[in-house]
Design brief:
By secondary structure, the protein is α/β, with parallel strands linked by helices. It is globular, with a radius of gyration of 16 Å. The chain binds guanosine-5'-diphosphate and magnesium ion.
Length: 203
């Protein structure tokens, strides 16, 4: 059954919150975007998940995530309070090319992006990287670690595989773990602030 979920807020927005920042969460199909937004969100994340059907066989590659039963057909939405004043609104884009049109909505007004990478299929995140770079959006790359074998790739290996610019932060994360996801979001906000600082210049 298709589902769009947006339930009551579980943690009220702090009264001190004065700055709302839109963040895009991107990456290939099955890399962990929906999991990432869900792990950190203080509100029940809005999800537009549809059951995967036989129609996606041969189209959506499930070899790395055989337990995946649903796929995002519009976008994920969640909220994370970063500090007393700053609240992040997270928009997770669908990974497949056929949902590319949703990207305009996800990127419109975004201050930065997290691009998630699965080292078993790094190339699946290329379209996301190309798009955030085309938009000149500040971003960080987060390697979502699915298992111990994934750690064999150093962050420099990942940087090289993605042919990333030197100033772009790369880190590991566990998309299921709230603290780990918060760490990625803090790194992104710090990166955005560094780029906005005229003394630093753009990376
Ligand atoms: N073991 C492990 N599984 C994960 C992790 N992140 C996501 N998953 C699983 O991988 C599958 C794909 O994740 P999902 O968030 O739906 O990917 P999306 O297509 O990028 O939104 C799901 O079955 C998740 O439960 C992780 O860090 N470790
Ligand atoms: Mg998803």
């Amino acid at each position: 059954m298709d589902s769009t979920t947006c339930e009551a807020t579980s943690v009220p927005l702090p009264q001190t919150a004065s700055r709302g920042v839109k963040i895009a969460v991107a990456g290939g199909f099955g890399v962990g975007k929906t999991t990432f937004v869900g792990a950190v969100s203080e509100i029940t994340p809005m999800r537009t998940e549809a059951e995967m059907t036989a129609a996606s066989i041969g189209t959506d590659d499930l070899s790395a995530t055989p337990s995946k039963r649903t796929t995002t057909v519009a976008f994920d939405f969640g909220r994370a309070t970063l500090s007393q004043s700053t609240v992040l609104y997270l928009f997770g884009a669908p990974g497949q090319d056929r949902f590319k049109f949703v990207w305009d909505t996800v990127l419109n007004g975004a201050l930065g992006a997290v691009v998630l990478v699965d080292t078993r299929r790094v190339e699946d995140s290329f379209p996301s990287l190309d798009r955030v770079e085309d938009e000149h959006l500040p971003y960080v790359v987060a390697h979502n670690v699915f298992g111990p074998k994934d750690q064999a790739h150093s962050l420099d290996d990942i940087r090289e595989a993605l042919q990333m610019a030197p100033g772009v932060p790369v880190m590991r994360c566990d998309a299921r773990d709230r603290q780990s996801v918060r760490g990625v979001l803090i790194a992104l906000v710090e990166h955005v602030m560094r780029l906005a600082d005229p003394r630093e210049g753009r990376a």
